[in-house]
Amino acid sequence: MRLVDMSVEDQELLLALIEIAREEGNADRDWDEIEPILASCWKEAHLGGSELKWDEVVRYVRMACTRPA
């Protein structure tokens, strides 16, 4: 799925998770520590809502965290 094809709500949540991941990464946390928390937040925010699964959006978070802000 392309970012532009996501709902506005999903885009906003994704951007928030990217910001959290960057902050946590800057606090010397490993991706293996951060990713399960972000996945849980994504799932919790979509109880009965969006059909987007974490596996479909995690690549955006990872790419954003490996690039300079």
How would you describe this structure to a colleague?
- This protein is mainly alpha-helical.
- The protein contains 3 helices and no strands.
- Helix 1 runs antiparallel to helix 2 and helix 1 crosses helix 3.
- It is globular.
- The two termini are 23 Å apart.
- The model has no long low-confidence stretch (mean pLDDT 83).
Report helical residue fraction.
Answer: 55-70%
User: What's the helix count?
Assistant: 3
Ends: how far apart? 23 Å
Structural class: mainly alpha
* Mean pLDDT figure: 83
Shape: globular
Report the radius of gyration as a whole number of Å: 12 Å
Query: From N to C, what is the helix and strand string?
Result: HHH
Low-confidence stretches: none
What is the number of beta strands?
Answer: 0
- Please summarize the sheet with the most strands: none
Estimate what percentage of residues fall within beta strands.
under 5%
Task: Present the secondary structure layout.
Blueprint: H1 8-26, H2 31-45, H3 54-66
